[in-house]
Amino acid sequence: MTYTPARPDPRAPAVRINLLSDTQTRPTPAMREAMARAEVGDEQVGDDPSVNVLCDRVADLLGKQAAVFLPSGTMCNVAATLVHCRPGDEILAHASAHIIAREGGAHAALGGFQITALPGADGQFTPDAFRTALHPRTRYQPPQTLVSAEQTANIGGGTIWKRADLDEVVKIAKGHGLATHMDGARLMNACVATGSPARDMAEGWDSAWIDFSKGLGAPIGAVIAGTRDFIDEVWRWKQRLGGSMRQAGICAAACTYTLDHHVERLAEDHANARALARGLAQIAGIEVQQPETNLVFFRPDGAGVSGDAMVGALRQRGVLLAMMDGRIRACTHLDVTAGMVEETVGLVREIVRGA
Ligand SMILES: *Cc1c(COP(=O)(O)O)cnc(C)c1O
């Protein structure tokens, strides 16, 4: 039995344009310099100054008391649910949420939690759908203890939750005694696209985190923030899960570097995503979801090419992207230029013409 993704096919042409994911960025020379210069210590005992600087910055950015550095966004989600919930508890999240679809069943395997999939367009459930899914506390039903929202909603198309909806979800959750968790893997994309500060977006959310290995472009790392007590408990799970590190300042320095140099530039990724969507939409038969941030979902079937065939034909031309839940996802990032976007549109047009 093998698991996908398989190793890249060594006979395939070299990848010239990598639209697979914003996780594919390589650290820039200046970022590597910041890493090389980083002061380091033993992170596990709280002695790594570069990690401490990063955590203080993110706690402040998200308007929370404290924060902790973890190796991945997935570990942020897992540690958070393990702190917020007890075995048998129910978590509510959108049906396409990363915690349901992309974390290997961690929340069931490690926590014994069940996650209720809420419906809704574009990766977001409405406050009404959330309200409808709540039930009274009885002996028969699982205790509902946590609601989670993705800002931006990945599979939803990189869509941005409106502040009013976030606030309404928080209000309903508090009224029913649920804790609130914001999966902010791409929160900074939402902030740059709307001009809203991260602390406003995360206001009222008991835990929130940002990923540095997505559009921000660092090689490793995510930081989760919350109350001091919450972060204390996250630290225990970090230790249990094997997420406590040593001279992690080398990685934290890259993350801090991105806060100084790679946040405002996310606007370029959004402009490139819009240009890609505009170009694709001009090709007859291609159905494109209008991007709000850096993710472009499209379907070429109407042009007589299946999604898989399009992905394969683009790969043969040096363009890497993939199918995600029945559509093709293209992701713009640090290593994708406007010229690459233009070239990709040209290649898609050529493939459609040859179909
Ligand atoms: C990528 C992602 C995660 C997980 O982050 P990793 O750093 O890849 O573990 C969680 N939630 C969302 C919405 C994501 O896009």
Please tell me about this protein's structure.
The structure is a single chain. With 355 residues, this protein is α/β, with parallel strands linked by helices. It has two domains: 29-261, 3-Layer(aba) Sandwich (Aspartate Aminotransferase, domain 2), CATH 3.40.640.10; 265-353, Aspartate Aminotransferase, domain 1 (Alpha-Beta Complex), CATH 3.90.1150. Helix content is 40%, strand content 16%. The chain has 14 helices and 13 strands. It has helices at 29-37, 49-62, 73-84, 98-101, 106-109, 127-133, 163-175, 187-194, 198-201, 228-240, 249-261, 266-281, 307-316, 338-353, and strands spanning 17-18, 66-70, 90-94, 114-118, 144-150, 179-184, 207-211, 222-226, 287-288, 295-299, 319-320, 322-324, 327-331. The strands form three sheets. It has a seven-stranded mixed β-sheet with strand order 2-8-7-6-5-3-4, sandwiched between helices. A four-stranded antiparallel β-sheet has the order 9-10-13-12, with helices on one face. Strand 5, helix 7 and strand 6 form a beta-alpha-beta unit. The relative contact order is 0.17. Pyridoxal-5'-phosphate (PLP) is lined by residues 72-74, 77, 98, 150, 154, 183, 185, 211, 213-214, 222.
Question: What is the topological layout?
Answer:
Blueprint: E1 17-18, H1 29-37, H2 49-62, E2 66-70, H3 73-84, E3 90-94, H4 98-101, H5 106-109, E4 114-118, H6 127-133, E5 144-150, H7 163-175, E6 179-184, H8 187-194, H9 198-201, E7 207-211, E8 222-226, H10 228-240, H11 249-261, H12 266-281, E9 287-288, E10 295-299, H13 307-316, E11 319-320, E12 322-324, E13 327-331, H14 338-353
Parallel strand pairs: 1-11, 3-4, 3-5, 5-6, 6-7
Antiparallel strand pairs: 2-8, 7-8, 9-10, 10-13, 12-13
Bound molecules: pyridoxal-5'-phosphate (PLP).
